[in-house]
Amino acid sequence: MIYNWNSVVSKDDTIYHLGDVGLGNDEQIKNIIDRLNGNKILILGNHDLRRGIDRWKSLGFSEVYKKELRIGKFVLTHRPTKVDEGLINIYGHIHNKPLHESFDPSKHINVSVDVINFTPVELVNDEIKF
């Protein structure tokens, strides 16, 4: 995963991690984060909550958000969430399971590592590139 990340992310890129960073201890997690290119921003996942925002920053994330972050027409979240007309939700969490039928698939993009071949995707000019 580190190789795949660094093969598409440069040191100057900003990358948004949509949560569930890892389950190791702080030293193990910091060792991995330090090896990843880019300015790393985290939207907390359910497995990340026990550490808290300040702790995640000390482990290598420049910014940390509890629920979501909006970038243009995209709403970045850990879990799929309903969005207003004209917005698109980019999420992880469900891995490669189908999106629940209560969500509009035209407004949701799954970027779980299982779906994107463990390689970050690019967000440029309000467009996501796989």
Oligomeric category: single chain
The low-pLDDT segments are: none
Number of domains: 2
Q: What is the string of helix and strand elements?
A: HEHEHEEEEEEE
Specify the structural class. Answer: alpha/beta
Number of helices: 3
Task: Give the strand content.
Answer: 25-35%
**Which of globular, elongated, flat, extended, rod-shaped describes the shape?**
globular
Mean pLDDT: 96
Task: Work out the number of β strands.
Answer: 9
Distance between the termini: 16 Å
Helical residue percent band:
10-25%
> Order of strands across the widest beta sheet?
4-5-6-7
Largest sheet: 4 strands, mixed
How would you portray this structure in words?
The model has no long low-confidence stretch (mean pLDDT 96). It is globular, with a radius of gyration of 14 Å. The chain folds into 2 domains: 1-66, no CATH class; 68-116, no CATH class. A 4-stranded mixed sheet has the order 4-5-6-7, with no helix packed on it. A 3-stranded parallel sheet has the order 1-2-3. Strands 8-9 form a two-stranded antiparallel sheet. It is α/β, with parallel strands linked by helices. 17% of the residues lie in helices and 25% in strands.
Short description:
The protein is an alpha/beta fold and 130 residues long. It contains 3 helices and 9 strands.
Features:
4-stranded mixed β-sheet; 3-stranded parallel β-sheet; globular; 2 domains; 130 residues; single chain; 25% strand; alpha/beta
SSE topology:
Layout: H1 2-8, E1 14-17, H2 26-34, E2 39-43, H3 53-58, E3 63-65, E4 68-71, E5 74-77, E6 88-91, E7 108-110, E8 122-124, E9 127-129
Parallel strand pairs: 1-2, 2-3, 5-6, 6-7
Antiparallel strand pairs: 4-5, 8-9
